[in-house]
Design a protein that fits this description.
- By secondary structure, the protein is α+β, with helices and mostly antiparallel strands.
- The chain has one domain.
- It contains one helix and four strands, in the order ββββα.
- The termini are far apart.
Length: 65
């Protein structure tokens, strides 16, 4: 496999490159930087990790005063 662009929400957010029989994610957008250089088995696994990361950031903690 060669490098592949990873899109999320129609926007390129990084690439995956072969690395040690897996795929290393290289982030090009700040909102996915937490996944930078992590290794995954498939491009779909990367997209799921991105989705989970974005969802976790969109969940605002409730404020109790």
């Amino acid at each position: 496999m060669q490098k592949q662009v990873i899109e999320f929400g129609g926007e390129p957010v990084g690439i995956v490159i072969p690395d040690e029989d897996r795929l290393k994610f290289i982030a090009v957008k700040f909102h996915v930087i937490d996944l930078d250089e992590r290794r995954f088995n498939t491009p779909d696994e990367v997209r799921l990790a991105i989705r989970d990361l974005v969802r976790s950031r969109n969940v605002a903690p409730s404020a109790h005063v």
